[in-house]
Amino acid sequence: MMKRTYLHCFFILLIFFGCRKKSAEPLFRLLSSQETGIDFSNDIRQTDSLNILKYMYFYNGGGVGLGDINNDGLADLFFSGNMVSSKLYLNKGNMQFEDITEKAGVATKGWCTGVAMADLNADGLLDIYVSRAGSTVPAERANLLFINKGNNKFTESAEAYGLADTGYSTQAAFLDYDHDGDLDAYLLTHDHSPRAVNNLMPVRSHGEAANTDKLLRNEGAGAAGHPVFKDVSAQAGISIEGYGLGVAVNDLNGDGWPDIYVANDFLSNDLLYINNQDGTFTNRIGEYMKHQSYNAMGVDVADYNNDGFQDVVVLDMLPEGNYRQKIMAAGMSNEKFDFMLQMGYQPQYMRNTLQLNNGDGHFSEIGQLAGVDKTDWSWSPLFADFDNDGRCDLFISNGHLKDMTDKDFIKYSQQTTMFEEKDQANAKLLKLMENLKGVKVHNYLFRNKGDLTFAEAEDWGIDQPSFSNGASFADLDNDGDLDLVVNNVNEKAFVYKNELQKRGKYHWIQLSLQGDSLNRLGLGAKVTLHYGGQMQVYEQTLYRGFQSTVDHTIHFGLGSAGRIDTLEIRWPNGSMQRLLNVASGQRLVLDYKDAAAALPAFDKPLQPVFTEVSRDIGLDYTHTENNQSDFSTHVLMPQTYSRIGPSMAAGDIDGNGLDDLFIGGAAGLPATYYLQQASGKFVRREFTADQAGEDAGILLFDADRDGDLDLYIASGGSEFETGSTFYQDRFYKNNGKGEFTKAADALPAMRASKSCVTAADFDRDGDLDLFVGGRLVPGQYPVAPESYVLRNDGGKFTNITRDVSAELRHIGMVSSALWTDFDDDGYIDLVVAGEWMRVAFFKNQGGKLVNVTASAGLGETSGCWNSIAGADMDNDGDTDYILGNMGLNTPFRASAEEPVTVYSGNLDGSGVHQSMLSWFIQGKNYPWPSRDALVRQMPRLGKKFFLYDDYARATVQDVLSPELLHKAAALKGTYFSSSYIENRGKGKFTIRPLPVQAQFAPVNGILAKDLDGDNNLDLILSGNSYAPDASIGRFDAMYGMCLRGDGKGNFVLVNPASDGLGLRGDSRSLVELVSQDGKSLLAGAGNSAKLEVYTHTKPLRTTFRKLQTLDAAGFLEWGGKRRKTEFYYGSGYLSQSARRCEVPVGSSLQIIRK
Question: Does pLDDT of 20 surpass 50?
Answer without folding.
Answer: no
